[in-house]
Amino acid sequence: MDQLALDGTLNFRAVAAYPARGGRLKTASLYRSGEFHGIGASGIAGMRSLAVTTVFDLRSDTEKKRRPSPLLSLSDFNVATTPHDVRHGDLRAVLADAESTPEACASVMKAIYVDLPDRFAAIYAHYFRTVLECPQPVALHCAAGKDRTGVGVALLLDLLGVSRTDIMEDYLKTNAVRDLLRERFSNHNSALGYVTHADRLIEPVIAADPDYLAAMFATIERDFDDTESYVQARLGLSADEIDRLRFRLVA
Fold this sequence. Notes:
Radius of gyration: 17 Å
Helix content: 40-55%
Order of helices and strands: EEEEHEHEHHHEHHHHHHH
CATH superfamily: Protein tyrosine phosphatase superfamily
Low-confidence stretches: 189-194
Number of strands: 7
Strand order of the largest sheet: 1-4-7-5-6
CATH topology: Protein-Tyrosine Phosphatase, Chain A
CATH architecture: Alpha-Beta Complex
CATH class: Alpha Beta
């Protein structure tokens, strides 16, 4: 199941039932998306039909204030989030510099991916525990559903024993909505909240680039040997929590 057409959403999809350690990922157990700021009545009805009434919002406090989620006002939806204002000032600076190159943007994007497992550790820990404690499917989202969401889902899938090939396949599915991301960015209404005077710099920012995700995993392996060690040491999940998370998501 790839992109799902829900009114007012961008990049909403289920994570496929990939082979994992001890079985396969349970069908439609995990969803990922861009922001829900523009979701309409039919989109909300669609989420209810999928039993997706718990979402985890990775966006910063500033983003949530600027583009609030209508789901917050619905009594049958649970919007989990971790208050934070983690920003990536280097990318903003590169985008604002008339002398910047696409290569410079790509370099900054790769650095963001490398930093996310550390800078978002408390947030990803909260997400993992939300999935563990919720009996229904959970939809993880940020603004575009690409970078912060992409890393969070990739870490969880790796913990579950999904192959790196399948993890990369899931990540790269975002490129199916690349034209929509480009349009939003060009109109200074990017879900990422960045504004640039130079459309020539857009491509490395809107792309789901395999080099970005590979750099993230390489850093995990350098610093922690593997994702499970990272999850225990940096996210603080116990071995029992990890086992229960696998039981929750793999059959």
